[in-house]
Q: What sequence folds into this?
């Protein structure tokens, strides 16, 4: 990835999140979310995609799956899956995500919480996209599972991203689909084609062939 | 949905599609794709989402699952899932999709094929979005499974949509995630919020608070 691209890390949190009755719980990891997020983050140039669960056995199982697809027989059977899964890191808690990013990449990313609910302090996609592309800082996008990130996580984030709405008031998308739409709204350029890369640098107004 | 919104139907084809060695096959339906596409199409106001498989037993199993979630115990347990799954129709082949749309909605939609490969005649997202919002016709977006729609389907479509690229040359997204990005690029408005609906009508240039 060229050095003038923003660095957007992603973390999928299985804890602390809410269940249906607003208790703070740890949800179960699914291999499908791992596969989908891996491919998504490979598409949008995410340097690292963190999967957070305090449940050690689940981290171990996920690790076994990843090793199979990146180093085992699976790596030859499905190379695009192998390539995508290289970016996945399994960690115990959110603090470990930030520590790992600092250690591995030398940056302390600005955190962005996401939720299906609207809060007064939510930042719009347009505004956040502008910040992302103009400031060239590193960012960490936090995705929740279950019924959403616990308040203790939301309050420590620098930004809370507005929920996704399409053409109706219905906004109950699965996290893997919502994540794709978020990354595309924040980082994507609708008319990028195979030969576009690297994309031209963005001017301040984001005009022309650039990001806005 | 207001009558000046475009009508974008969606069909997920399990046949005819290619397998890894470019044979035309029928792929297996997955309940996860059904759930994800149902939620996605509820979000983007798709009047109907068709799931195409020639395999009768798979249509029967999928139907049982849908009945459980829309009419059985599942409908009270998870109302947002019930609401989304109302839009799913299970059919045997692509022609049945077009027949059903004509019968149920009185329109003959313009067909849009999608694929991960770039073809010379691909239409860009920007150009297709403009057509969709200005012409107010009905459209049918065809999503493939396996290794993509068979050529016999592609050649009968009016448009072939450009593949999705993010910030890297990697473009191997799962269909449920790709579909979300496509619908958002074609229909979405990044700053729509809960109180936005119905969205204002689009002027010809698509400026202001509108779609372009």
A:
């Amino acid at each position: 990835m060229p050095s003038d691209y923003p660095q957007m890390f992603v973390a999928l949190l299985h804890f602390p999140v809410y269940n249906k009755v607003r208790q703070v719980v740890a949800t179960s990891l699914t291999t499908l979310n791992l596969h989908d997020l891996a491919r998504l983050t490979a598409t949008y140039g995410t340097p690292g995609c963190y999967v957070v669960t305090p449940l050690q056995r689940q981290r171990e199982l996920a690790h076994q799956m990843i090793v199979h697809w990146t180093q085992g027989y699976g790596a030859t059977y499905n190379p695009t899956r192998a390539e995508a899964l290289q970016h996945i890191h399994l960690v115990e808690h959110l603090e470990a995500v930030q520590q790992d990013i600092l250690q591995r990449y030398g940056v302390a990313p600005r955190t962005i919480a996401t939720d299906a609910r609207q809060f007064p302090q939510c930042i719009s996609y347009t505004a956040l996209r502008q910040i992302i592309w103009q400031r060239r800082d590193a960012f960490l996008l936090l995705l929740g599972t279950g019924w959403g990130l616990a308040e203790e996580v939301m309050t420590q984030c620098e930004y809370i991203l507005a929920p996704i709405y399409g053409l109706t008031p219905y906004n109950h998308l699965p996290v893997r689909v919502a994540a794709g739409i978020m990354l595309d709204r924040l980082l994507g350029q609708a008319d990028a084609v195979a030969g576009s890369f690297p994309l031209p640098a963005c001017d301040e107004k984001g005009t022309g062939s650039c990001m806005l």
